[in-house]
Specification:
- The chain is an all-alpha fold and about 650 residues long.
- It is built from 40 helices and no strands.
């Protein structure tokens, strides 16, 4: 009977001990998830003064809690007093160091660990990768006794995030076993770096796909402008999460198809702040300010991100008055809010207002400084841009703002200053390198331009277009076309327009027309620059019918409002064809005031065809706009003399 009571008491104590341990463990986990360091320290003190002070399980949880709360030193104190730390203890301590950027301490502990498992190795591989030390991550993987699929995927992701897509693919190919996470990492590698075609090809090879796979490839296609492919993927997705719905919504909004964006938005059964912010930004960017405000007013909840999204959208759309009004009624503002208002003023040439915002900012980051330098540079105020740049503290003068100054020099044609600044830059990012490719290209120094282009780790479509344009402007169309055909990233409308313009400028009009036809067949949406180039090509070849068709369908088919350059081209085309009545009629009914170029084109046509009356009207109009130019009267006198 006594033995039974002792056994019962022991069992009761064991359960009580277990219940207490479970309760303490849950409280530690609460502190970890809420990052409540103060409460965690109080709980740690409570455990030290209880019978659980030597409990290794609770000790491991305390190490994890201190690591997550940003106190690796406190975590180490717990680790050092554990009686018999197990592999979980070592892993928690290594993780506490890596989470807080203490890589040297983490590596020292890693090297001392008596029983490293795959988790220990993966912590260190991930830590070096996040710090940008890919070489050390690679060395650790090569030393691992038995790397698992997580180890390989960590390294693959690290190389992809650094832009080394080919190296990421080689790592993927070396993997003995792949799961859906590694396949998704490859997809994300391609998608994040603009390799939409490769992402789609990899997706087709996957034995099994999930919502992440679908969403990644769908977003890649949407970003590349392949809306039909994105729509097809979205339609066949077996399940759609917030990210998928928002990705499709963003695709329509970014391409300007707001009616389709509205349809997607209304079909969403659940919407988060991202969904609402995409609609608000998309509508504001397209000039639907009243509707954007209506959506903003309907938002069930707003945070500083949603407020800032509308401020930025209004500013970028040119409605800076509305942006400023909204900014001043924001309940809270952060540095992005200030930057959004500043950028709105700066991008639309309102330098004084931008400077006033800049002076009032409670905290200026590099983006704000960069906006001011870029604003002055864009307006041709190079001296002011240089003055702001030179007066900035070193803490503000990083790669971004230095690159803005570089772009300002290049844009103003001060190539020697651009080269001097570029040579002084310690860190040269892709934008800086691309800018200098443009500089050397405009100077005709193709060898230097190509060397810098080849130095870009992951040239984006802008870099490719810049190098192609350098070759085209130098008349080396074969090299330009070879580079155009070899582009590993998806071509955009600029890529096609550069080739079209290159052919047109060198008199290869048939090839220019061929490029335009390919754009139509491939579903590439032409812009105003493309249409200017094709009208110019048609003008030289004498294709009046196609010219009229392209011109009349600009707004209806391409969504492009004809500008003065397009009217000038049509005046020249009709004039060469001898249709002087239609030529004069076009000049007379232009919705924008005809400039001296339009009247000169009409005068030139009158000179060719000997039309004195229309020539007299055109000459007087051209001379009135440019009194110092005697050419109009010389042409008119030639017409009169016959």
């Amino acid at each position: 009977m006594q033995l039974r009571r002792k056994a019962s008491r022991a069992l009761h104590n064991a359960f009580t001990h277990y219940d207490e341990q479970t309760e303490l463990a849950e409280r530690i986990k609460e502190c970890s998830s809420s990052r409540n360091l103060g409460q965690g320290k109080l709980l740690h003190n409570e455990i030290q003064n209880s019978r659980h002070f030597e409990n290794r399980f609770l000790g491991n949880l305390l190490i994890d809690m201190y690591g997550k709360c940003g106190s690796p030193g406190e975590a180490r104190k717990v680790f050092d007093v554990l009686l018999e730390p197990n592999k979980f203890s070592w892993n928690m301590m290594v993780k506490a160091y890596t989470q807080n950027g203490s890589l040297d301490e983490a590596r020292k502990l890693f090297d001392e660990a008596p029983d490293r498992d795959v988790v220990t190795w993966n912590h260190m591989i991930a830590a070096y990768a996040q710090a940008g030390n890919l070489q050390e991550s690679r060395k650790l993987l090569d030393r691992m006794p038995d790397p698992d699929v997580v180890s390989w995927t960590l390294l693959l992701t690290a190389y992809a995030q650094a832009g080394h897509v080919e190296e990421a693919r080689k790592i993927f190919d070396r993997m003995h076993r792949r799961d859906i996470l590694s396949w998704n990492a490859l997809l994300q590698s391609y998608a994040a770096n603009g390799y939409c075609i490769q992402a789609s090809q990899a997706f087709e090879k996957m034995a099994a796909v999930d919502v992440v796979s679908f969403t990644t490839v769908m977003a890649a296609n949407a970003q590349a402008g392949h809306l039909s492919e994105a729509e097809a993927l979205f339609t066949v997705m077996p399940e759609k999460d917030f990210i998928a719905w928002n990705a499709m919504l963003s695709a329509y909004a970014q391409s300007g198809q707001m009616s389709l964006a509205r349809q997607i938005f209304e079909r969403m059964t659940n919407r988060n702040v991202v969904s609402w912010s995409v609609m608000v930004s998309g509508l504001a960017h397209r000039g639907f300010i009243r509707e954007a405000r209506a959506y903003f007013g309907r938002m069930p909840s707003r945070n500083v991100v949603s407020w800032t999204a509308l401020v930025q959208a209004l500013g970028q759309a040119g409605n800076v008055v509305a942006a400023e009004s909204l900014f001043f009624v924001m309940p809270t503002r952060n540095v992005l809010s200030w930057n959004g208002l500043l950028a709105g003023f700066a991008q639309h040439g309102k330098i004084a207002a931008a400077m006033e915002v800049f002076e009032k900012m409670p905290q200026r980051d590099e983006a704000a400084c960069s906006s001011m330098v870029a604003a002055h540079g864009d307006c041709g105020n190079l001296a002011e841009a240089r003055e702001i740049f030179s007066s900035m503290p070193d803490s503000c003068r990083g790669t971004i703002v230095t690159t803005s100054m570089l772009v300002s020099y290049a844009g103003s044609g001060d190539f020697s200053a651009a080269r001097e600044l570029f040579d002084r830059m310690e860190v040269k990012d892709a934008v800086a390198l691309t800018t200098m490719v443009s500089v050397y290209g405009r100077e005709g120094k193709l060898r230097e331009a190509r060397a810098l282009f080849d130095a870009i780790a992951r040239p984006d479509v802008v870099a490719w277009n810049t190098m192609i344009e350098a070759y085209a402007n130098a008349g080396q169309l074969d090299q330009a076309r070879a580079l155009f055909d070899a582009m590993p990233v998806d071509k955009n409308v600029v890529s096609w327009t550069v080739m079209l313009t290159g052919y047109s400028q060198l008199g290869q009009y048939e090839r220019a027309l061929g490029i335009f036809q390919r754009m139509d067949l491939d579903g590439i949406q032409q812009d105003d620059m493309t249409l200017t180039a094709i009208l110019s090509a048609c003008s030289h070849v004498g294709l009046v019918g196609p010219s009229k068709l392209h011109f009349s369908s600009m707004l209806a088919d391409y969504g492009v409002t004809p500008r003065i350059e397009h009217y000038q081209c049509m005046v020249a085309i009709l004039g060469r064809a001898g249709e002087l009545g239609k030529c004069e009629e076009l000049v007379g009914r232009m919705p924008i005031a005809p400039d001296v170029g339009a009247w000169k084109n009409l005068l030139g046509a009158c000179s060719i065809h000997g039309d004195v009356d229309r020539g007299d009207v055109a000459a007087n109009a051209a001379a009135e706009m440019d009194p110092s130019n005697e050419v109009p009267y010389l042409l008119l006198s030639n017409i009169v003399r016959g």
